[in-house]
Q: What sequence folds into this?
């Protein structure tokens, strides 16, 4: 017996995600990509400046949150425009 597809309802119709769901997914994907970018670029910059230990983690953490929030916001706005 084949698997039931996600979003299958008893009426036989597929439920489409709402606009708010799409915006949430866009923000989540953007935040994830921004976090990875923040880790890479923030880590390289902090190591280049000679930071170690707590200073390194603090600087990279700030970079991760700022890059993730920025890219997540832009992805959410882009997803909202496409709704």
A:
């Amino acid at each position: 017996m084949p698997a039931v597809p996600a979003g299958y309802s008893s009426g036989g119709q597929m439920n489409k995600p709402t606009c708010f769901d799409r915006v949430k997914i866009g923000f989540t994907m953007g935040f994830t990509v921004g976090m990875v970018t923040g880790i890479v670029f923030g880590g390289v910059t902090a190591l280049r400046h000679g930071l170690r230990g707590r200073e390194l983690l603090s600087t990279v953490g700030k970079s991760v949150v700022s890059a993730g929030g920025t890219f997540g916001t832009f992805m959410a706005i882009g997803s909202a425009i496409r709704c």
